[in-house]
Amino acid sequence: MAIDDNQATIGWSSRWTFILAATGSAVGLGNIWKFPYITGEYGGGAFVLVYLLCIAIIGIPVMMSEILIGRNKQQNPVDAVLSLSKSEKVSPAWSIIGILGILTGLMIMMFYSIVAGWSLDYVYATANGQFLQITQTNIASYFEQLRANSPLQLAWHTAFTLLTAGVLAAGINRGLGNAIRILMPILFILLLLLVGYSYQIGHFAQAFNFLFAVDFSKLTGEAVLVAMGHAFFTLSLGMGAIMVYGSYMTKSASIANTVLTVAFLDTLIALIAGLAIFPLVFANNITPSAGPGLMFVSLPLAFGALPYGEIFGTVFFVLIAIAAWSSAVSLLEPGVALLNQRLGWSRPLSALLIALITWCGGLGCIYYAQLFDVLDHITANYMLPLGGLLISIFAGWKMRRKTVRNELKELSLGQFNLWYGISRVIAPIAIFVIFIAQLELHNKILRLFQ
Ligand code: TRP
Predict the structure, then answer these.
(1) Three-state secondary structure along the chain?
(2) How far does residue 140's CA lie from ligand 1's centre (Å)?
């Protein structure tokens, strides 16, 4: 019965639908809100380079592992790993991957929904013409007031939670699949338009330098950790979202091609968002390290000054909200799929319960800004990489070579061995080393020898 439920709602119709869904999950606030603001905080170029390396060396192989685990058993992350542990004859304790993942997804959603709520507020404010010809001081104080206005944030947070729960209740394909097909390209085009405008009006060269001129002296252990964490965050990795999407993917599709497409689109959109935002940041004397408000301060300035800015701005924030929406759905889908498949609860009931949990957490984030920061920091920098580490080890060491090879049979032997080597050795070591570097354990060890 649970299976029927699923087939009625999901089960991607083609390879493209999967690419679309995975891209919808990957492209979100991480690209347009978070990437520029952490790049600003961690000093630009060197940080961006590490982030790109992490996408290539860790993100892409881990994404392949997630999909192949999910697709092999066509179940939610907990049950997929459980059944694999039986057929591959390893400890069922590995299903911690799924449990940890579901927990991480809930924790991310708690602050994600607050930021998505800000975007909704900005849709309303832009449409109302509140940002017309706005000055830098005024927009900064607008954002501060929004953050201080708890009831208003609560209202937007509730609206966003309901939107997300609605899609989850109905099944992902029906509503969101179609919406993304049309809206993602529009978001892309509007971003390009904005870059064009930033190029003319803003300090484009300075922004370009900031993003791409590598100065390693600015790179701290923490910056490397955050860059890696963001690579996981932006590709939706390490918590089973891509795994559960993979479980709805047909056996005939090529995992590697799909993953490369999604990673490429996601990275492209983040870089374009950076090139749209930073020229305005530098032209208006906003500090790049302004924190979570960066996008919410720089973009309204641009739209406020643009011809037809009211219209473009409104459309833009609507699209950001939609990008956030399609990502939020994937944050909660592993949990919803678990309740639905394991306990046989209907999708609406499962979605309602899960959404209620994250709604309460969001409430906490509104009233204790510290909780917001802690959740953002812990999930991206520790929980997702830890999940990714376990996934890599599971696919690389615990599953039989024959099983994984069979999922990746479209790869040549050389390509397969590359993936295999990265999954078994390079990715786990890289993640581990970055963890250690962050703890600055090496400093302590060095001190022992002094
Ligand atoms: N990738 C999304 C973004 O960039 C956020 C997201 C959706 C996510 N699903 C996820 C992050 C799963 C980590 C894990 O905004």
Answers:
(1) CHHHHHHHHCCCCCHHHHHHHHHHHHCCHHHHHHHHHHHHHCCCHHHHHHHHHHHHHHHHHHHHHHHHHHHHHCCCHHHHHHHHHHHCCCCHHHHHHHHHHHHHHHHHHHHHHHHHHHHHHHHHHHHCCCCCCCCHHHHHHHHHHHHHCHHHHHHHHHHHHHHHHHHHHHCHHHHHHHHHHHHHHHHHHHHHHHHHHHHHHCCHHHHHHHHHCCCHHHCCHHHHHHHHHHHHHHCCCCCCHHHHHHCCCCCCCCHHHHHHHHHHHHHHHHHHHHHHHHHHHHHCCCCCCCHHHHHHHHHHHHHHHCCCHHHHHHHHHHHHHHHHHHHHHHHHHHHHHHHHHHCCCCHHHHHHHHHHHHHHHHHHHHHCHHHHHHHHHHHHHHHHHHHHHHHHHHHHHHCCHHHHHHHCCCCCHHHHHHHHHHHHHHHHHHHHHHHHHHHCHHHHHHHHCC
(2) 27
